[in-house]
Amino acid sequence: MLFSWLFSDYSFGCHFGSFFNVCAAYIDNHLNTVLLYSQIENLFGSGFAQILARQENGVWQINGEAIANTGWIIILLQIIVSRLFERRKALPSFMLGLFIAACGYFIIGYSINLGPATVILGIAVFAIGEMISSPRIQEYITWIAPKEKAGLYMGSNFLATCIGALLSGITYTKWFGDFEAMNNPEYIWYLLAAHLIVGVLVMYIFTKLWVILTNKRVKLTCNIV
């Protein structure tokens, strides 16, 4: 149970909450939202672009809050992603999802150099990682939990995710302000990406140790009996 708390707290809930705390401010304050509006307008038309934008001093610019969410890509792709991964093992799928989400973070951060439209690609990649990993953690927690305590483990996981989201406000959100003061706001995304990569490594090591310890317990029980 301790592991499910810590992992959900720091490697899922915390980074997920940080995305929503930081992304809109990053877009509004550090990307060229006027150019982004023009790019979206050229591709989808002014009617659609204005849904995502606001007008200041007669100039249209994209509202960061309108695109700094994953709902739109989840609506479009969740069924497809679920079908692709429904027969795959939970743990490899979960770790792959975290890795893809980390790639999304890196793209979001690097969009400050590549151009504002790149941030949409980064958000989409992050959303795909979320779609892969989010459902599979429940299967993983069920796998490591004793059968008689599966409900307790699942409930603790949701609570830890909530705590992680709350902690994101005093960790990554604060650090984002520090990076802004250093004139390197993109560093927050690289830090979040590193966070997830470390999470993947921890998951891999923990699972290997768990399997070894479980096998030893089974052998010991057989010898005793």
Describe the structure.
It is built from ten helices and two strands. The protein has one domain: MFS general substrate transporter like domains (Growth Hormone, Chain: A). Strands 1-2 form a two-stranded antiparallel sheet. The protein is elongated and about 65 Å long. α1 packs parallel to α8. By secondary structure, the protein is mainly α.
By oligomeric state, this entry counts as single chain
Number of domains: 1
Q: Find the CATH superfamily.
A: MFS general substrate transporter like domains
Classify the beta-strand content into a percent band: under 5%
Major β-sheet strand ordering:
1-2
Q: Structural class of the secondary structure composition?
A: mainly alpha
Which fold name is given in CATH as the topology?
A: Growth Hormone, Chain: A
The N- and C-terminal alpha carbons lie at a distance of 28 Å
Blueprint (SSEs and pairs):
Layout: H1 2-30, H2 33-44, H3 46-51, E1 53-56, E2 59-62, H4 64-67, H5 71-85, H6 90-114, H7 118-144, H8 150-168, H9 172-181, H10 187-224
Antiparallel strand pairs: 1-2
Helix pairs in contact: 1-8, 1-10, 5-7, 6-7, 6-10
How would you summarize what this structure contains?
It contains 10 helices and 2 strands, in the order αααββααααααα. It has 225 residues and is mostly helical. The chain starts with a helix and ends with a helix.
